[in-house]
Amino acid sequence: MINHGVVRSTIKPERMIIDEYSVWIHENINEIEVEDEIINDKGKTEKVKTTMYEFEMVQYTKEEYIALQYMLTLLEKV
Questions:
Q1: Cα 30 to chain centroid, rounded
Q2: 35 touches 48 (CB < 8 A)
Q3: Residues 44-71, buried b or exposed e (16+ Cβ, 10 A)?
């Protein structure tokens, strides 16, 4: 398991993404507005607002995720 902590993206993440090797879990997804300063084509600085998503991201190997789900299933039976 790799806990990537709080990350930001301009694309709203899905709660779970499964790729060839990993299961990616995204939790506590919040839409935020970020203000940046850019230099326009006239050489002047201006402020631009961008909508982003801030969330917690954890990456599991598929084997780790299967084991985690198995353990959670066992705990539910207790």
A1: 10
A2: yes
A3: eeeeeeeeebebebebbeeeebeeeeee
Helices of type H across the chain:
62-77
For the record, the structure tokens of 7 come out as: 């990350």
Query: Please, are residues 30 and 54 in contact by the beta-carbon 8 Å criterion?
Result: yes
Q: pLDDT of the chain along its 78 residues, tens only?
A: 999 999 999 999 999 999 999 999 999 999 999 999 999 898 899 999 999 999 999 999 999 999 999 999 999 987
Distances (CA, A) of 43 to 38, 40, 50: 9, 5, 20
Q: How many residues can be counted in the chain?
A: 78
Q: Which residues pair with 22 in a beta bridge?
A: 61
Alpha carbons 59 and 9: distance in angstroms, whole number = 16
Distance separating alpha carbons of residues 54 and 31, to the nearest angstrom: 6
